[in-house]
Amino acid sequence: MTSLQWLTALMPVLSVFVLLVVLRLPATRAMPLSLLVSALLALWVWQMPLRQLLAAMLEGSVIALSILWIVFGAILLLNVLRHSGGLDVIRSGFAKLSPDRRVQTILIGWLFVSFLEGAAGFGTPAAIAAPLLVALGFSPLAAVVLALIADSSSVSFGAVGTPVLVGIAQGMDGATAEGLRAIALTAIGIDVLVASMLPLILCLVLTRFFSEEKSWLPALQLAPFAVIGGLAFTVPAYGVAWALGPEFPSILGALVGLALMSTLARYHILLPKEPWYFSAEDKIQSENLQREVAVGQGMPLWRAWMPYVLVAVLLVLSRVPQLPLQGWLNAMVWRWPEILGTNISASLAPLYLPGSLFVLVALLTLWLHKSPLSCLQQAGRDSLARLGPATIALMASVPMVRIFLQSGVNEAGLAAMPFELAQVAALHLADYWLWVAPLVGALGSFLAGSATFSNMMFASFQQTVATEAGLPETLVLGLQLLGANAGNMICVVNVVAAASVVNLSGREGDIIRYTLVPMLYYCLAASMVALLFW
Question: Which of 158-167, 220-229, 297-306 has the largest mean confidence?
Fold first, then answer.
């Protein structure tokens, strides 16, 4: 590639980083600017036909609409719970289990997020967990940052194993069930040593950046509990991956972890004597909450939690291919084949999207919580009012990504932009590929907004480099899988969606600055473990 072509291929990454992170522009301004620059360079330098570029943008618009539907459903359910009083009951229940903000971070930000990722994936965990943390008293910025960092390790087996069973399987040559199982076990084996530290990292971020005292010490005081919280997920997940395959490690690992860590929290095992709060004011508010009686007009805790339980159950049932529900929900599909006469197609299965399940559960919540119809009307108005900034950001960022990915059709004789970048990296960095492999996976997730698509896009490429560099193919593909997980922390689509749910649109650059270092830790630590033990 020429230097200008190299710059063009990097532009979607560079423009997002500079505009969002360095210049701190809101995504509503940064993403349209990034789209404009990337589109012009794709036409001029990459020589994409205008029809191909417009088709890619239209494909991206369809994908963006599906993400917006998920965001709307998550906000609607949250607002219905808020108006029904259920959210206050949930807050009270967590305060009674443990008022300690570090413990709540591990239970909700790490284990509940991991369960949601295993059940649904595709941005759902942060969209549900972030507002729940805000309801407990976390700042919106802290809630989004923690949810995004936590939604990483479990992504390997997210959406009932989709990143492995679809992403790796369709992306690599000669995929077999035994080969996929070996890749999955390699990834989760590394995660036992790497991702088990993520709950401690969550607590370090929490106490150092989002508390009044700005100290690392409170997190370190909880280190035994936090590390056990990490192992409580990764070790059972490894066992499930070994015994059952890649469909259920995140779901079952998170359930085991929740049961264990909730028990330790309830009986105050491995916890410091005094709970930790963000500030003195936060302590007073939490203590007042614990004293409240008859919160939410006497609603029992099980009834308050039932909407989230229903969401989790429906997500699992609708994602298991052996059950008929998946087929029923996928029966209605809107297809747009050969957009503008190109090889690009788009499809949408509205009933299968998590957003539809959220809306269904929001309707059922009216009956469960004995709320009037006016509660739904108010929740709907509040939810629609929150979608504006997210709509602008997503309708620009996703089309930009699709231009990047669909750029293989051009008159310059070049491959698609991500493959050109990866080939240059392989040419110069093959000797250091165990360090580079997870970063390639992270780049794919950062741009595509999906670990599954990152794996699908780069698995074959990683195979080729592994063969040429004389590296174990299973190990390199395992690092691709882990890198795709890490990229989930900083991917623009997830950041925009999570920020919009907690009314934080415009702070996307701030969010990425907090999640960037944990993302790099995940990638580099995985490489180090691979070098030392494999």
Answer: 220-229
